[in-house]
Amino acid sequence: MTQQRPNMDWMLKDLASSVPQTRHVVLLSSDGLRMAQFGTDDDTADRLAAACAGLQSLSAAVAAEFPHGDGRMRMVVIEISGGFFYLMAAGAGAYLAVLADEGVDAGLMGQRMRDLVARIGQHLSSPPRADGPAA
């Protein structure tokens, strides 16, 4: 039996509406499954979530090169032609991803993402999935 996840899209609305030039906001699990979205359709959110899982894995490999860190990714920012991509750890097993146009205030976006995670980080998590039936 599949457990129904509560709709968390509303938590992302404030971020999307408070930072001009925001295009897509997606909350995803560490294995690339979309948990919530705002400002985007399901297909786009699913593609972003899957791509973010690979980027999160890549960032963990890079983090392993820092001998005094804990090896966990906190935030990745990529400037691309036409805009910015942000990926931030957002709770146990969850990540917050944002695509924004090139006119975005990059500092404001980073701060608002940190604020959102600090405010509601305990809701932005993905518990481990059980593979078998509950005992």
Automatic annotation (TrEMBL):
It comes from the Bacteria. The chain crosses the membrane at residues 76-98. SUPFAM superfamilies: Roadblock/LC7 domain (SSF103196). Pfam families: Robl_LC7. Keywords: Membrane, Transmembrane, Transmembrane helix. Residues 9-100 form the Roadblock/LAMTOR2 domain. InterPro entries: Mycobact_SerProt_Inhib_Rv3364c, Roadblock/LAMTOR2_dom. The keyword Transmembrane applies. This is Roadblock/LC7 domain-containing protein. It comes from Streptomyces thermolineatus.
